[in-house]
Design a protein that fits this description.
alpha+beta, globular, 5 helices, 2 domains, FAD/NAD(P)-binding domain, three-stranded antiparallel beta sheet
Length: 261
């Protein structure tokens, strides 16, 4: 598996959880002890969005599961048989997964003459309007926006997309009403990474309190689940969101813990 960000780390842990659940389907010949996962990260450590101590704790949890974590290791070639690294090592694999980096579809590259980044994201101004056409707004993973006073673009994360969507909605209404548009301000509320049923690590609040509050274990797992439910409520509303939470809780009791289709 290539990529030591949240996606790669969570998926590596979930693979072990899935392998452990296979025995419930009568596949006693295969369990987590027969699974070998290698997580390859080109950067100096996994989970760069988290504080170093939390990233180290996550790596320790992964290695305890049996995951081989390779950092500072770039992949130069992917074949049907496995991955070749810049150091010359070839890592054989039956299943190869790529979870490194975010790139928008090639169809967005210079689409309609709009300005795009090297990852095909549409460049936007603080109002979230594209730089070459005021009639077009871009939000979420397809938007490339560097806040004033910073050198890095807004990260392609769910909380950024949620905030952008709210800001674009307000600006669309103001545009229709011929009023001045408001600049988008990104607020980092922190990050949480779930290692399946084994553990959860993360940092909360982000720049809201001028720093980060590191959490892990049961508290982090509770917050992770709570934030997911808040996400359901934001998308589906309180009534439908509550029904989905109850439905999910019932399914955990009456249905198998792993879907094979």
């Amino acid at each position: 598996m290539v990529g030591g960000g949240a996606t790669g780390v969570e998926l590596a842990a979930e693979l072990y959880n899935s392998a452990a659940e296979l025995r419930h389907y009568g596949l006693e010949v295969f369990d987590e002890s027969r699974l070998e996962v290698t997580l390859i990260e080109a950067g100096p450590r996994i989970l760069p969005a988290l504080p170093e101590d939390l990233a180290a704790a996550a790596q320790k949890e992964l290695e305890a599961l049996g995951v081989r974590v390779l950092t500072g290791m770039a992949v130069v070639e992917a074949t049907r048989e496995g991955m070749k690294t810049a150091s010359g090592e070839f890592i054989a694999a039956d299943l190869r997964l790529w979870a490194a980096g975010v790139k928008a579809p090639d169809v967005l590259a210079d689409i309609g003459g709009l300005e795009t980044s090297r990852t095909n994201q549409l460049a936007v101004r603080p109002t979230l309007q594209t730089t070459r056409d005021d009639r077009i707004f871009a939000i979420g993973d397809c938007a490339y926006f560097i806040p004033e006073g910073t050198s890095r673009p807004v990260p392609p994360r769910a909380q950024a997309a949620h905030q952008m969507a709210a800001a674009a909605f307000v600006n669309l209404k103001r545009l229709i009403g011929n009023r001045a548009l408001k600049p988008f301000v990104y607020r980092d509320h922190g990050s949480l990474v779930s290692l399946s049923r084994y553990s959860t690590v993360g940092s909360l609040m982000g720049n809201l309190v001028g720093g980060r509050m590191a959490i892990e274990g049961r508290i982090a797992r509770f917050v992770y689940a709570s934030l997911y439910r808040m996400h359901l409520f934001a998308i589906h509303g309180v009534i439908k969101g509550s029904a989905m939470v109850v439905y999910s809780w019932i399914n955990r009791i009456i249905r198998p813990r792993l879907k094979l289709h």
